[in-house]
Amino acid sequence: MKLVAPLLAAALSFGVSAAAAQTKWDLPAAYAPGNFHTVNLVQFAEDVDKATGGKLKITVHSNASLFKAPEIKRAVQGGQAQIGEILLVNFQNEWQVYGADGIPFLADSYDSAAKLWRVQKPMLDKKLGEQGMMMLYAVAWPPQGIYSKRPLATGADLKGIKWRAYSPSTARIAELLGAQPVTVQAAELGQAMATGVVESYMSSGSTGVDSKTYEHLKFWYDTQAWLPKNAVIVNRRAFEALDKPTQDALLKAGADAEARGWAASRKANSDSLERLKANGMEILPPSPQLKADLQKVGETMLKEWLDKAGPEGRQLVDAFRK
Predict the structure, then answer these.
(1) How many CB atoms lie within 10 A of CB 218?
(2) Between helices 288-321 and 168-177, what is the axis angle to 10°?
(3) Would strands 145-148 and 219-221 be described as parallel, antiparallel, or unpaired?
(4) End-to-end CA distance of the chain, in Å?
(5) Residue 12 and residue 6: Cα distance in Å, rounded?
(6) What is the pLDDT along the chain (322 residues), one digit of tens a residue?
(7) What is the pTM of this model?
(8) 68 - beta bridge partners?
(9) Which pairing describes strands 83-87 and 229-235: parallel, antiparallel, or unpaired?
(10) Hey, CA dihedral for 245, 248, 252, 254, is it positive or negative?
């Protein structure tokens, strides 16, 4: 009996130290489990688990199940979640540089979006650092087009249409085109279209597939307007609480996820447009007039953005256009 007590104590002690050695992080994300961003996040979490020998376990909470899209940044900043995925343009009202990749036709291809990211990243690193966070990686969405319940020959055809706005930029586009902006996040989009709350919106082919937009809207115009980015951000204090090997493993997994994610985005673009087409959606190039009308909107919004962003914005755009 005397031998059992020390053995039991040792076993309990081992159990406590093993539990203490494992760190658990929550990663809230706003998009569906099948979305390429979410699939990439799950792979990232598995890579971290493997590289750290299970010392750091990251649970991905997809489809806004833990926090809604606009709440994720604050949750990471406040420590309710240690890591999270955000859509940068959602936070443009807080700081204009967050919305640089939502300016229509500033960066309108994967190559130009990657160039914009290289220019934007040091500025984002600094801002997030001031807010007690750090940037881990970012991945672009496929190029944005316009979904519509009716054919569009010109910008005027969008007048009065119920237009889904999910960021300051998309709301402003609606205003400039005379559309009626309605704020709807990705997780509620299918329901909003089914009930007629949304008749048109601007997004990628991936969002159209995720939300089964083809069941409600029949046209998608390939305007290549912009490629907004999802960014994975980390609470700085949570990161600093990790030991050095775990930090290194996290950074390496993040770098791998970024490279993998951009490749997945390109593939998701072609795959999703094929799926939309297979489900009866018309995939169309914009008419010259629609393109010209949208370019005009882009020029207005770039000027407005530069006025608000000040010297930081001018510096970013000048460096991007070099």
Answers:
(1) 15
(2) 140
(3) antiparallel
(4) 79
(5) 10
(6) 455 555 555 555 544 444 447 999 999 999 999 999 999 999 999 999 999 999 999 999 999 999 999 999 999 999 999 999 999 999 999 999 999 999 998 998 999 999 999 999 999 999 999 999 999 999 999 999 999 999 999 999 999 999 999 888 899 999 999 999 999 988 899 999 999 999 999 999 988 998 999 999 999 999 999 999 999 999 999 999 999 999 999 999 999 999 999 999 999 999 999 999 999 999 999 999 999 999 999 999 999 999 999 999 999 999 999 9
(7) 0.85
(8) none
(9) antiparallel
(10) positive
Q: For 135-164, b where at least 16 C-beta lie within 10 A, e where not — what string?
A: bbbbbbbbbbbbbbeeebebbebbeebbbb
3-class secondary structure for the chain?
CCCHHHHHHHHHHHHHHHHHHCEEEEEECCCCCCCHHHHHHHHHHHHHHHHCCCCEEEEEECCCCCCCHHHHHHHHHHCCCCEEEEEHHHHCCCCHHHHHHHCCCCCCCHHHHHHHHHHHHHHHHHHHHHCCEEEEEEEECCCCEEEECCCCCCHHHHCCCEEEECCHHHHHHHHHHCCEEEECCHHHHHHHHHCCCCCEEEECHHHHHHCCHHHCCCEEECCCCCCCEEEEEEEHHHHHCCCHHHHHHHHHHHHHHHHHHHHHHHHHHHHHHHHHHHCCCEEECCCHHHHHHHHHHHHHHHHHHHHHHHHHHHHHHHHHHC
- Please state the separation of Cα 8 from the chain's center in Å: 49
Residues 6+ apart with CB under 8 A from 255: 137
Are 174 and 165 within 8 A, CB to CB? Answer: yes
- Contact criterion met (CB below 8 Å) for 157 and 177: no
Question: Cα separation of 97 and 99, whole Å?
Answer: 5
Reading across the β-sheet that carries 282-284, which strands appear in turn? 180-183, 162-165, 200-203, 145-148, 219-221, 282-284
